[in-house]
Amino acid sequence: MSTQKPTTPLPALTQTALFRLLSSDITISLTADAPNCLPSNIHDVNIKERHIQSSIVLQVLGIEDMGKSRWEQVEAIEALERGEGTKGREIIRVPTTEDGDDSGAKIDNSGGPHKLSLQDASGTRVYGIELKDIKGIDLGMSIGCKVVLKHPIVARGVVLMEPANTTILGGKIEALHKAWKENRKAELKAAIEGSERAAWSNP
Asked: How far apart are CA 147 and CA 150, in angstroms?
């Protein structure tokens, strides 16, 4: 039975529905019909280029700034942990929530391009590459953020993202965001250490 009162205005109902969608896991909240999902052979690298003939809602499972080294990404994460962001070359304090969440903090948007790990309603995951700067995509965005891709091009299994075909709806899946934030720095440091060991073993 609905918990909404019959007198609740339609705009309020719409906002409530949107909030619930943005904070939900779309593999549970959305129907995994073919038109709403990525093609089953999306990862086929033998297909040089194809156009997706529909608009698809995806959620962000991870993000990497390909314009920054791993160490720079570690430093950016640690800056957010200290409650710091950047504005140009200036380091500034950024607000956090009572539980210490820094998802609203923004890193200098001069970074990028970014690589995103994306997931559709069927659970299929794919990488997306930011070809041009897209407002809302940076290392400070929330995991679980919803993205709509409108007729995107897929090149050898990678989705090509640009402002004309990408709309950032926002949102966050709390559990996924917390896990990613806790693990990301460790993964970057492990990759750095692995590269250093490889360099020492191959003079």
From this structure: 10
pLDDT of residue 9: 79
Strands 158-161 and 125-130: parallel
* pLDDT by 10-residue block (mean), the chain, 203 residues: 63 78 92 89 94 94 90 83 61 50 51 93 96 92 96 96 96 93 87 78 60
Rounded distance between C-alpha atoms, residue 203 and residue 192, angstroms = 17
Q: How far apart are CA 102 and CA 106, in angstroms?
A: 9
- SS3 sequence of the chain: CCCCCCCCCHHHHHHHHHHHHHCCCHHHHCCCCHHHCCCCCCCCCCCCCEECCCEEEEEEEEEEECCCCHHHHHHHHHHHHCCEEEECCEEEECCCCCCCCCCCCCCCCCCCCEEEEEECCCCCEEEEEECCCCCCCCCCCCCCCEEEEECCEEECCEEEECCCCEEEEECCCHHHHHHHHHHHHHHHHHHHHHHHHHHHHCC
Residue with tokens 């948007």: 109
Task: Report pTM.
Answer: 0.76
